[in-house]
Amino acid sequence: MDSDSQTGYQAIVPAAGMSRRMGPQSMPKQYLALAGRRVIEWSLAPLLDHAACRRIIVVLSRDDVHWASLPVANHPKIAIAIGGDERADSVRAGLTAACVQANERDWILVHDAARPCLAAADLVRLFEQLQDDEVGGLLATPVVDTLKQVDESQRVVQTVPRERLWRALTPQLFRFGILMRAMTHCAKRQFAVTDEAQAIEALGLRPQVVAGDADNIKITLPEDLVRAARILDASGQDATPE
Predict the structure, then answer these.
(1) Pairing of strands 53-60, 9-15
(2) 141 sits in which H/E element
(3) Partners of 107 in the beta sheet?
(4) How do strand 78-82 and strand 9-15 relate by DSSP bridges?
């Protein structure tokens, strides 16, 4: 990391979502059991293990009843904030909590609570490639499938060229001052963003894409848990809680 980053970075993990696409579950997807841990524990593990990560702000729903029972809830690196209805609301809440220990040029990393398969090597690569960047960027993978645009009747309108198309992942890593301005800018204009890079783009800036592993999947549908379990088993990661 460069001289601006020698004190490390803070991470924000939005975990206030309600898992609408997972079906009638008794708990949000980030708390579902996965290979001996909860999904969120796997998602947090690479951040907890990274020496430069000095603080992780987990953003919870006001009504959360699951977090406090996890062993990781008592980790000294972790702080808690209360989020909102949308991801962007939770990220802003995390940024507000981060500001007491952050200056304009500090790095803020945002990682999905439901991405349990982040490889440590990808996290290292993200920092190495962005360490001198004035804006920041995100892990992503090139689109390899053939893409179809369809109409309201699910009929194909056209095939969309996939050249130069990438699938956005997390973590996403940006300078604190720029990310705070970007998220505030979008909120004031009621511009809904689905990730932090889109907010940065709304300021007219261009985030850097860093190649990541396609196994860094997000738990969205029930079958994703099965795939994630296979990925974690193949990686040989220890399921012992932190």
Answers:
(1) parallel
(2) strand 136-142
(3) 175
(4) unpaired
Yes or no: say if 127 and 208 are a contact pair by the CB < 8 Å rule: no
Averaged over successive runs of 10 residues, the pLDDT of the chain (242 residues) comes to: 59 85 70 96 97 96 95 96 94 96 94 98 96 95 96 97 95 97 97 97 98 97 95 78 45
Whether residue 14 has a cis bond before it, omega within 30° of 0: no
Torsion, CA 30, CA 11, CA 195, CA 123, rounded to 10: -90
Residue 139 forms beta bridges with which residues?
Answer: 210
Query: How far is 227 from 242, CA to CA, in rounded Å?
Result: 23
Neighbours of 228 (CB within 10 A): 23
Report the alpha-carbon distance of residue 64 to residue 168 in Å, rounded.
Answer: 28
Nearest to 181 by CA among 196, 163, 162: 196
Indicate the helix (H) or strand (E) that contains 89: helix 87-98
Where does residue 8 fall: left (phi above 0), alpha (psi -120 to 50 degrees), or beta otherwise? left
- In this structure, are strands 166-175 and 156-160 parallel, antiparallel, or unpaired? unpaired
Tokens representing 153?
């009747």
Q: Which amino acid belongs to residue 239? A: A
CA distance 90 to 96: 10
**Among candidate residues 219, 227, 232, 223, the one with its CA nearest the CA of residue 30:** 219
